[in-house]
Amino acid sequence: MSEQQVVGILGSGRAGTAFARVMLRAGIGVDMCSTRPPKALQHHLKIYAPGAVPVWPWQVAARTSTHGPGIVILAVPQEELDEVDPGWVNNAGSADLVLVDATNTWHDEELPGWLQAPIDEQLPSSYGIAGRFSRTKVVKALNHISHHDIEAAANPDLPLEQRRAVALAGDDGQARGRVMNLLMLIGFDPVSLGGLCASHPIEPDGPLFDRPLRREDILRFAR
């Protein structure tokens, strides 16, 4: 019997718990952390993501690095990212760790200076994430689907061509491939846009943000 894959999720709010539910439904184990200790998080997860394992933040990358695809999903509001210690994932002990940037920039929120800087230069916000979490391979994904919709949109029982398409972008081809495989397992049709520089269309106000998409919709913006 093969060992269950595990994905880490950094952030246990509405988006993080929605991601956890679709992964658990697909048979993927989930470790979750927040600013609360695991014991305090346990009751919250029993209600909103039953089956997810609460862990300390510095543990969130451990099991996925040895029992899974080596993927941690960043699901923390961007205005709160200064509370996230980059060492939680930068020092995970695996140079191949993939960090999925599922965050979004909202115009009415004040951002950390290190994240605002690339945005001021008209660059995708993931450039700031990649600089901050420099020992991971950053892939932008899962940010352009509302947490209200993700469970209904993810359907692994459908043939690939009938599924909702989702876009992703990342500079490392192998990292993109790992994230694409995860997205297929949970029930989407993943389509690569290219490098992080191509991620503008899936940011808020972009043409692919919060829309039901087919593969051809995304391929129009691929680089």
TrEMBL record:
Entry keywords, A to Z: Oxidoreductase
Keyword Protein biosynthesis: no
Gene3D superfamilies listed in its UniProt record: NAD(P)-binding Rossmann-like Domain
GO CC annotation: plasma membrane
Domain of life: Bacteria
SUPFAM superfamilies on file: NAD(P)-binding Rossmann-fold domains (SSF51735)
Location of the Pyrroline-5-carboxylate reductase catalytic N-terminal domain: 7-104
Pfam families hit by this protein: F420_oxidored
UniProt GO MF annotations: oxidoreductase activity
Name used for this protein in its record: Pyrroline-5-carboxylate reductase catalytic N-terminal domain-containing protein
